[in-house]
Design a protein that fits this description.
The structure holds 2 protein chains of 2 kinds. Chain A has 17 helices and 11 strands. By secondary structure, chain A is α/β, with parallel strands linked by helices. By secondary structure, chain B is of the alpha+beta class. In chain B, a hairpin with a 2-residue loop joins strand 15 and strand 16. In chain B, helix 4 packs parallel to helix 10, helix 6 packs across helix 7 and helix 8 packs antiparallel against helix 10. Classes of the chains: A alpha/beta, B alpha+beta. Chains A and B meet through helix 1, helix 4, strand 2, helix 6 and strand 5 of A and helix 1, helix 7, helix 8, helix 9 and strand 4 of B.
């Protein structure tokens, strides 16, 4: 393990990744994390020094969308190597072991400690935990045990971060995100979005492995490198917005010409994520790039606050590129008939009004 | 007698628990339990039906297109929207790519480790492995050097003591029967398929912005503009790109997946005698080939009962019902009732043991509830859905290419058609379907290109977009063949809002519990008589359950909260 040739070098060679490509990856990571050039060498050095870190990936009220996102890591090529080379000691969707043997793997990792817990899916609090059990144990008990003993916890996807779709009104199962279900976790990072983009998970892990600490976060515990600016601020269609060129109907001339989707319901102005820069599936495309509005999936309560999806936001004009999630929040979906949207606005305004407040649990049902 | 519990069943989507009674080396009885519930249909009540696809899509991130497709079809059916030809072609391409990618992932990443012993691969001779690989395919990655590299990589993995996802598998189990060189070849292709799926699914990003959870669906069409003269639309460059994706998929399926499937199956032919199941097959059909109200379907619709391959019965949606007698829900009319989805109701009613628990306390004639899945029935009968059902209905309906491939596979494995009704039959049918689809997709790309060339650029039926054009009350059903089988959504709309929504899902059909008459669901029935050599390591149970490709998050749903007063914060 502590031999001269690091495990990383061996793995890179097996996968046909050259030293040059690896350094290119480190440089991309440094850029993604907005670090100075000097950090490139440090990233490379630290990643190679690190023993293969252990991940325990828990799935609760989930759809496995973040797992699938995880399996799609494709750019830069070394990123998949880094992910591939984590020791994924527990992950129900991919692991060979089943039943008792799989639970033994999880319990063994918890006993050894020092692992990173990744949580996908919300945690139900209703029916004494019976809305989600694994091996007869409730999701809540498992989360308390595994996250409580982890070196760090990453809540991945909007369900694990903010409750997501199971917590949408009327939240039939009392679903909560990790921060609310297991309060007091020290090293908890939220990677919201539905699903979260694997490029941001990669960057987060690289940052952590390199600096042994988490990157700066917003008040929702999301890394600023990925959630620091709105979709609208970086959108490739922004010039059309500024020029007043909008899509008016699906398939019309403006739609075919790539005009702004604001009038079709785009939630980009109220959504903070780096989709326009990083894009998806190895930089292939992103939702606005294929002609559909942003649905705001990285934001808390977006299922209530950003719906109806095809109604446009009000109050967008007039804020500039300096906005961030801590100053913007009172944007509302037009359409007062939408009970859910109204509910969401109240919540977000409450949050904006009190930044120090942790994520507010939803209590209605 | 031993009570074997597998919980969690891994290498599936979602949360599944199997309890089985094992005696004399075989399963005597089995219970399939889904252990997670979210209530997405309750959440849908009162919302804009045009938003529903995004909600239902989140039922599952693995089959990330299927609930979106079923949803937009259900709403279109309700409001009378007619998507134009380009939307149909884009959807066919998205559905086809989903099926091909999903089936390959299932074979290599979810199912293979039940048949392939990774640890045995360490003792393989790379030269022999190369010989084997070259004898079954002309796939270029087949040199002894290549397989040496793979073997050393696994060895490094094992030596470092960090086996990660491969730790604690049933390695060395006597039920593993492949020689070391076949194991090594399969492991190499496990890794190649991991790269392949990642690249191939970029096709979804081209057509849907991203994968998982594509975002180009619209009630009435698709949001992806089509215009040969625009950089911001699908143009001829995209056509070339799509053709490339399809060609690469066909290449991998034809030269890696299918040869591997046949090679591995030849060592496990006895599994054509296990996992028979209920013997009834239901198919809604898929891939509309025209834009009429009742289009020709590339994979035909229909029912086969009692393994009778002489005829296909037409599908009648009024015969679909669901029971909750063994499910953690209650019905107003009593839990013995069977309700059609339009009249469906669901009130969660958990009566199982309080977690943590060891056993659900079930016996042969249990009247207990034990699953978050309901029990769907067609004309009162349990039905198996999925690739096997689709290939059987296509075969009996006279689908030329399916007939040809089914015949070729049976001949190569030297087994008769009865071998199809089995664990191995499901594995083979999934491969055959993938091959047929991989060959077919090109024609949809060509049709899309032809439309572009002729100036047919419509992607959406705008006439029904505005809710003011809808009737005050509307009901609709949307049918789809998901990779895992027949999927139906039923929606009721009142004054522009969803008043009721129900999904009857492939994994509900297959994995559901007993019904009010005590009849087992397809998983439970298929597990009967499955051999179990070592109750502590029940790999055989996994083989049969995995042959259905479980997708549990899909299976669990709730409908119609009309009997439940739902508190909701109203906007002021």
């Amino acid at each position: 393990m502590s031999g001269r040739r690091s495990w990383l070098t061996t793995e890179l060679e097996h996968r046909g990744v050259s030293r040059r490509e690896f350094m290119g990856f480190c440089a991309t990571m440094a850029a993604a994390l907005a670090l100075p050039d000097a950090a490139v060498a440090q990233i490379a050095r630290e990643i190679q020094k690190t023993a293969k870190p252990v991940l325990v990936w828990l799935e609760f009220q989930d759809c496995a969308g973040n797992t699938e996102s995880f399996l799609r890591a494709s750019r830069p090529s070394a990123a998949e190597v880094v992910l591939d080379m984590l020791s994924l000691d527990y992950h129900e969707t991919v692991m060979a072991a089943a039943g008792r043997q799989s639970r033994d793997n999880r319990d063994g990792a918890v006993k050894r400690g020092g692992y990173i817990a990744v949580v996908e899916g919300s945690i139900p609090t209703g029916a004494n935990g019976a809305y989600c059990t694994i091996g007869g144990e409730s999701a809540l008990d498992i989360a308390r045990n595994v996250c409580g003993n982890a070196a760090a916890t990453i809540a991945i996807g909007t369900c694990a971060t903010f409750g997501g779709i199971p917590a949408a009104a009327p939240n039939p199962t009392g679903a909560l995100g990790v921060a609310d279900a297991v309060p007091g976790l020290k090293n908890l990072i939220n990677l919201s979005a539905c699903p979260a983009n694997v490029e941001n998970l990669t960057a987060l892990l690289v940052y952590y492995l390199t600096f042994k600490r988490w990157p700066p976060l917003d008040h929702l515990r999301r890394p600023l490198f990925a959630y620091g600016k709105s979709i609208h601020d970086n959108c490739e269609r922004r010039a059309h917005y500024d020029a007043g060129q909008y899509v008016e109907a699906w398939g019309d001339e403006g739609h075919r010409a790539g005009y702004c989707l604001y009038k079709m319901g785009c939630k980009g102005p109220a959504t903070f994520q780096n989709c326009p820069n990083v894009k998806w599936n190895g930089g292939t495309n992103w939702p606005i790039g294929c002609g559909h509005p942003c649905i705001g999936c990285a934001e808390p309560d977006f299922w209530d606050r950003m719906t109806p999806f095809y109604q446009h936001l009000t109050g967008v004009p007039g804020f500039g590129a300096a906005s961030n999630v801590d100053t913007i929040g009172a944007l509302a979906v037009l359409g007062v008939g939408a009970a859910f949207a109204g509910h969401g606005i109240i919540q977000i305004m409450k949050r904006v009004g009190d930044k120090a407040e942790p994520i507010t649990p939803k209590k209605e049902s | 007698m031993a009570r074997v519990v597998v919980d969690p069943v891994t290498r599936i989507e979602g949360h599944l628990r199997i309890e089985a009674e094992v005696d004399r080396g075989a399963v005597q009885d089995a219970w399939s339990s889904s252990t997670m519930f979210r209530g997405i249909e309750i959440i849908l009540k009162g919302r804009d039906p045009r938003d529903a696809w995004a909600f239902t899509q989140r039922i599952c991130g693995v089959c990330t297109t299927v609930h979106a497709i079923a949803s937009i079809r259900a709403v279109e059916n309700a409001i009378g929207a007619s998507p134009p030809a380009n939307a149909r072609l884009l959807r066919n391409l998205i559905i086809g790519a989903q099926a091909v990618q999903d089936h390959v992932i299932h074979f290599y990443h979810l199912h293979a480790l039940d048949w392939v012993d990774i640890v045995s691969a360490l003792s393989a001779d790379p030269r022999k492995t190369s010989g084997l690989a070259e004898s079954i395919s002309d796939w270029p990655l087949s040199s002894p050097k290549y397989f040496t590299g793979i073997r050393d990589r696994i060895k490094g993995f094992v030596d470092r003591g960090q086996l990660g996802p491969f730790a604690n598998g049933y390695w060395g189990h006597p039920a593993y029967r492949l020689p070391p060189e076949a194991n090594l070849m399969a492991v190499a292709h496990y890794l190649e398929a991991l790269d392949w799926q990642r690249e191939f699914i970029k096709m979804h990003a081209v057509l849907g912005g991203k994968n998982p959870h594509l975002q180009s669906f619209l009630v009435g069409g698709m949001a992806t503009p089509v215009d040969p003269n625009s950089q911001a639309a699908l143009n001829m460059g995209t056509i070339a790109e799509l053709k490339q994706f399809v060609a690469k998929a066909r290449d991998f399926v034809t030269r890696v997946y299918i040869p591997d499937l046949l090679a591995i199956a030849s060592f496990y032919k006895d599994w054509a005698g296990h996992g028979r199941g209920v013997g009834n097959y239901l198919v809604y059909g898929e891939y509309p080939e025209d834009d009429s109200a009742n289009p020709t379907l590339f994979f035909p619709r229909g029912i086969i009962r009692g393994r009778d391959l002489s005829k296909v019965e037409p599908f009648d949606q009024s015969k679909v019902t669901e029971y909750v007698s063994h499910s953690w829900y209650q019905y107003q009319a009593g839990d013995g009732a069977a309700l059609h989805p339009y009249n469906g109701e669901t009130t969660p009613n958990y009566t199982g043991p309080k977690p943590p628990y060891d056993l659900l306390g079930l016996d042969a004639n249990t009247d207990k509830k034990y699953s978050w899945l309901k029990s769907p029935r067609y004309d009162g009968e349990p039905m198996e859905v999925g690739p096997l059902a689709r290939m059987l209905v296509a075969f009996v309906s006279g689908h030329a290419r399916v007939k040809e491939l089914v015949g070729a596979v049976l001949k190569q494995l030297n087994v008769g058609p009865e071998a199809l009704f089995s664990t191995l039959g499901r594995v083979a049918a999934r491969g055959i379907e993938t091959q047929v689809l991989a060959e077919k997709m090109d024609s949809w790309v060509d049709a899309l290109a032809a439309n572009m060339g002729s100036g047919e650029l419509r992607i959406h039926d705008n006439s029904k977009w505005d809710p003011s054009t809808w009737p005050a009350d509307a009901m609709g059903a949307g049918f789809h063949e998901a990779p895992r089988g027949a999927l139906g959504h039923w929606v009721s709309i009142h004054n522009g809002e969803i008043s009721n929504y129900q999904c009857v899902v492939p994994s509900t059909w297959n994995a559901g519990p007993r019904d009010a008459k005590g009849r087992r669901g397809p998983y439970e029935e298929a597990l009967l008589a499955t051999p179990v050599a070592d109750p502590e390591r029940p790999i055989e149970i996994l083989r049969t359950v995995h042959s259905f490709d479980p997708c549990m998050a899909c299976g669990v749903h709730v409908v119609d909260a009309k009997h439940r007063e739902v508190a909701r914060v109203r906007a002021v």
